[in-house]
Automatic annotation (TrEMBL):
Organism: Aeromonas simiae
InterPro entries hit by this protein: dsDNA_mimic_put, Put_dsDNA_mimic_sf
Any coiled-coil regions, as ranges: none
Stretches that traverse the bilayer: none
UniProt protein name: DUF440 family protein
Top-level lineage group: Bacteria
């Protein structure tokens, strides 16, 4: 079965993020992303966590999905700020996407 590659998933999630971030994040977060993403920004595909089923209200076949994190890294190259997590289908014929936004309160 053909699946999307990690690079394709990262690119897709980042494109979605850029489109929606101004409407889904606080203004200060947009400033942080704009100023710091080039130096500390990261977009990383990983295995999804099981708690998506709780949020979606239905079982999720985790082998059919990937999770992509978008945020800023600390000095040890670990995420210290996450702005969004995307749940993306691996199958190229599937287009349903889920996202969790992490909006700071200003």
């Amino acid at each position: 079965m053909i699946q999307r590659t990690p690079d394709q998933l990262v690119e897709w999630a980042y494109d979605l993020f850029l489109e929606a971030a101004p409407d889904c994040l606080a203004p200060g977060q947009i400033v942080d992303i704009t100023l710091e993403f080039e130096q500390r920004g990261a977009v990383e595909a990983t295995l999804p966590v099981a708690d998506w089923a709780d949020e979606l209200g239905e079982p999720v076949d985790l082998t059919a999905w990937a999770e992509v994190w978008i945020g800023l890294l600390d000095h040890q190259d670990e995420f210290d700020t996450i702005y969004a997590k995307y749940l993306l289908p691996l199958a190229p014929d599937q287009t349903q996407v889920y996202v969790r936004w992490f909006r700071s309160e200003e």
